[in-house]
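To fix ideas at the outset, we first show an illustrative case, written as a sequence plus integers encoding its fold:
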Amino acid sequence: MKRLFGKETNVENYSKLHVELVYGCVHQLKEVMEHFYEQNFDLMDDEVEEITRIEHEADEIRRKMEIEFYQGAFLPFDREDRIVLAELVDAVADATQSAAYAISLGKIKFPKIFKDDFVELVEASCEAVSVLRESVKMLDTDLRVALDKAHEVEEKEEAGDKIERKIIPKLYDAYRNNEIGILTFIELKDITQKIGNIADRSEDASDRVPIMVAKRKG
């Protein structure tokens, strides 16, 4: 029994570290964007590489969790939910890496008129992941707080959607008015959607939390 509890403690620690690393990926995206705004492409690429490094580290932690599950940590019903949750949280890091790569590959000149909108969009995605992080960490200490935070992620995702829906029409208008070229329009639209996708994936992960809470309370 002591051995089993030891495995469960390991998984709980891995889970907290995993979501912390995923949040680190998203937080690093702020640095990528700051260099993007200023066309500091070499520094931007360095930050993209850092996101890749953190995402890889998160993958390694997730694999360690899976090994612990395979060796019998937790009861089967809880084990399945934890595996699914880890995969969904990992998808947030994947979405962040995808956004960072899109920004890095295009290397377009960023139109200053959109800076405030993009700062707001990135912040919304960061907030969604931050609340997800809190929700996951609370699963092993306070189910009520974990559930409340999961619902809050949904609110943050909806706020991000509103910002995304505000930016894209502005991009169309700027293109029609010859304020930006076709390449800039295409690249910024793609980047907008990819950054918004980070909050979408956060909501997907948070949707697993109420299921886990209900099973444990039952």
